[in-house]
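Changelog note: in this version the structure field was regenerated for every chain. One regenerated record is shown below for reference.
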Amino acid sequence: MTAIEKEDLDYQYSPSRWSHRFDAEAVVQDHVRVVQTETDKARAQLQCELDVSYGDREGDKLDIYKPDNCRSDAPIFVYIHGGYWQFLSKDQSGFTAIPLTAAGVMVVAVGYDIAPKGTIDVMVDQVRRAVSFLSEKFPLSSGLYICGHSAGGHLGAMVLSSDWSKVRDGRVPAIKGAFLVSGVYDLTPLVKTYVNEPLKMTEEDARRNSPCLFSAAVVKNHPKCKVLVVFGEHDAPEFHRQSKEYTEQLKGLGMEVSCVEIPDTDHFNVAHNLAEEQYQLTKMIIEEMLSS
């Protein structure tokens, strides 16, 4: 790969450089400000359980935000944060909680060990175990709904393609829906980019953790799971391409899946606008979770 080709690949996988709202540095700062502010607000206003352990690793923690008079059968929205597997945490991931709990949905923000502490394999294992833990902890819930943004979209897709026989007690969680927002479903292009510097993925690591190579497992484990693949109008073209290709792959296998481009959003506010009750994606998620 020439220096020019690497520079172009870096550019294609630099979502902050494609925003229509701010320059690259400012759009990231704005995203952090919004998700932190809205998470702090949710923690102050809602009934929540913080730092709940779902395993033995130090990073095996999650936060639970409950609606008032929480029903035992409340649907559960499981949010997996982004940050290119090396930034952010569950402590900025409660920003969806206020509008969703108002609709009677329980919200869970999953923590995992970002790089360099955690490898991609470790992170995938963690989110799988977190989902399995929630399935056991809330057996009467009407269903689990996975939502991941960016790197979290990748991790959410890897949850769907899990070999559950190797996770905790081997039971398959009742995942009724998945909302994958501006995710990466083929990691192999990232191996030669700046993103991989703290991750240190090999080509084999990338293939082993690319959801596009394990889509048949989604059909096997979760044939009735509805999948919504979302990206922002001003996401980088590679995120458009990967989202569309993963959608078509799942469709070709018979899954109920749709792909939606959210107008006038970039890679960042396509997710953090979920703090707003009237946001298009918020309404779509609530409608799906309460109607199924």
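Spot check on this record: The two ends are 48 Å apart (CA to CA). The first strand starts at residue 47 and ends at 53.
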